[in-house]
Records
---
Amino acid sequence: MLFRLCVFLVFQLAGVAAGAQLGGRWGALIGLALGGGLWFGLDLLRAAHVLRWLRENGTAGAPALRGLWGEVSDRVRRLLRQREQQTQDGEARLREFLAAIQASPIGVVLLDKAGRIEWCNQIAAAQFDFDLQRDVLQVIGNLVREPAFARYWAAGDYAHEISIPGPGSTVSRPVRLSVQLHPYGAGRKLLLSRDVTALEQAEAMRRDFIANVSHEIRTPLTVLSGFVETLRTLPLGEDERSRYLALMAQQSQRMQTLVSDLLTLSRLEGSPPPATGVWTPMSSLLERSLQEAQTLSALITHGERVGHDLRPIWEPDLRGLGEIAGAPDELHSALSNLLNNAVRYTPAGSLVEIRWQMLSEGRAEFSVKDSGPGIAPEHLPRLTERFYRVDRSRSRDTGGTGLGLAIVKHIVQRHGAELRIASTPGLGSIFSIVFPANRVRMSHPAPPEPAPSPVAAPSTESLQK
Ligand code: ADP
């Protein structure tokens, strides 16, 4: 400011000096006024320079001025730079924030006061089938037309989430969305959505499972308590008594089998996958399973002369049959479940073929082919569900729990193998397990003599598939 005053005085003094020389006292006075006016004019020019620069709103190219106007333009330039930096920082933060919401597994929709979509992330767009460009500023009620959502919106009570079917949901492929509105700001709303299809299916399965277990246990329990009551109240003869006791033993055996299968399932679900370093000879697994199947066949056919024709088939050069890596008990359980099912669902006297063969790329396949009633195609995808039965009475009569194939499926998955089911109604079924190469090895030393067939009088054939 002092500098500015000094320059002003210098201009006036220069005017006075020039005026006094040219016109005496009056000249000095006029020089004084002209000096002041000249300074003022120059100052106005500098101010106009700064103003023009400000109007052009540029941070670069600020006028190179000294004095007050130089300082003003310098400070304004710094302020503008600061503001620009802050805007850039704010925009970067907003971009990061939006990227975080985009990455969220939850659908997010921002709605204005009128319920129009201002912004939504890709998850929400996919869940509600929104078009990210076209549907911006569309009223949400026009796009989500589910009556339950319309009622929820109108009621204005958003304390709880609601579950609605997603667009494209069908009976065979249901999609469920959980939706909740959160009011914020001045009348705006945040809509959060989650795909709860798997969750609701798991919950339904849990309910069904409990209902099924209760039903399976209640039936033999009712029979048992009926017999207990009869034995307590009626004076029965020895024959009748022992017949009733045998029936009671049968029912308690049924419950025991059920509980044992349930425990097996929960053990399979809760334990880590079996190690790949424990090798079990396939011959011993086959032998054990075949013997059990023969015992079962004799039991089911009540010792009739014609049992099932259980026929193991493998390539003749597969001496020793190789080895499988995994949990021996689980492998035995899977093999014997398939074999027992073939016996249980195939009429006495029919042929059941048991194959063990190498496939391409080092894989191997165990398969059981029966000539039973077969299974209609619509049942095939559901066979491994717990308690799913096609032939309910045959299952119960032969001691089935409805859990066998569910157990097999778990075991197969835990061993990285694949369960394949092929069936033709009226002709029979083939259940097979394909083991991956890392769980099969054929390096087992060949026995000196051809190994005798593990079952009585089986015919060993060359494999032809
Ligand atoms: P279950 O204890 O009832 O046999 P599973 O889980 O082992 O239960 O089998 C499920 C259903 O699949 C059975 O109830 C039966 O209806 C059908 N099933 C299984 N194996 C065969 C087969 N080899 N032939 C015909 N139906 C079969």
Note: The longest helix spans residues 2-55.
---
Amino acid sequence: MIIFGIETSCDETACAVVEGPGNVLSSVVSSQIPIHRPFGGIVPEIASREHLTQISGIARDALQRAGVEWPEIDGIAVTQGPGLIGSLLVGISFAKGLALTMDKPLVPVDHIHAHIHGALLGLSGEEQRQAAFPLLALVVSGGHTNLYLMRDPLDFCLIGYSMDDACGECFDKVAKMLGLPYPGGPAIEKLALNGDPGRFQMPRVSVSGEGPFLFSYSGLKTFMVNLLRKEGAAGLDPQLVSDLCASFQKAAFEQVFRKLNGAIREFSPKAVIIAGGVSANGYFRKMMLEALSEPFNLPCLFPRLEFCGDNGAMIAALGCNALSAQARHWGRDRRFDWDAYSKYNFMVGS
Ligand code: KG4
Ligand code: ZN
């Protein structure tokens, strides 16, 4: 099955062709980062207009690079949400137009769930065997820090999420305080390479009451604001900034591990997937791989670097699974009466 994937939820216009579910024939991503950087974050109005000018060219490019023609495409998958509403509407409207003109089934997919499928793209045979169910899947991105228990590729049982800021969002805000460019994650990781992660003791955030796997990053962010006021009074020398980045990064990732550790003990998964933009961080990958090998001896899969951030291939991969599962339904009754949504449904098991 060959699926065409479209992603426009935030600041990347992306299209891909995937031979299902994991063989990527092409993946074209146009990033808007340079356009938004002067504003220190994403400007939604500019993002949706930029998607509108880019989407046709990116779609054509993805098809050409894959070396396939429209008759060979079995279906189209598009991000339905969550994301910026204006940006989502561009991708969805384009996808509906394409599906109607080309007479193809159209599958709306969840962006966060798709990040998990992004970790399963281009796996070797050995890696495919490691991705066994049930598994725990963690999506650490700019908008979400979500933990799922999955019993099969389409079963996303949400068991944990952030009560306030997402992990990536916290990186972006802390980077802004330090005067670093948007997006903050890669900038903090780079500076942390020369820093001492043990110089500053950060708070160990613990959220309980509503469930054991809840995350919180607003406390760590406020701690950084106060620390910067104190330490920055005498001026921020480069070594101090590097030490702050290294200590912050360590604390942010230790929280992720503490929650994952508890979930592994409770659910005894056969594998762990860690995906989303933050999973590109090399220090994070090393920390998690080491922590999961001893004492758990659990396989831990990360997406290839090109599939950590937003891309169309992960959308196509999830769409392929959904379309295979619902092939008869989608073939018989091609529905277009659905809308974008920007609000995520936090119901566990939904
Ligand atoms: O998944 P993604 O591309 O978009 C969303 O769906 O949100 O994630 C973007 C987030 C940003 O917050 C960015 O700062 C963070 O991922 N990020 C990183 C790194 N690369 C991207 N955070 C830490 N270290 C990195 N190397
Ligand atoms: Zn994303």
Note: Strands lie at 2-7, 12-19, 23-31, 75-81, 106-110, 135-140, 145-150, 157-160, 271-275, 300-301.
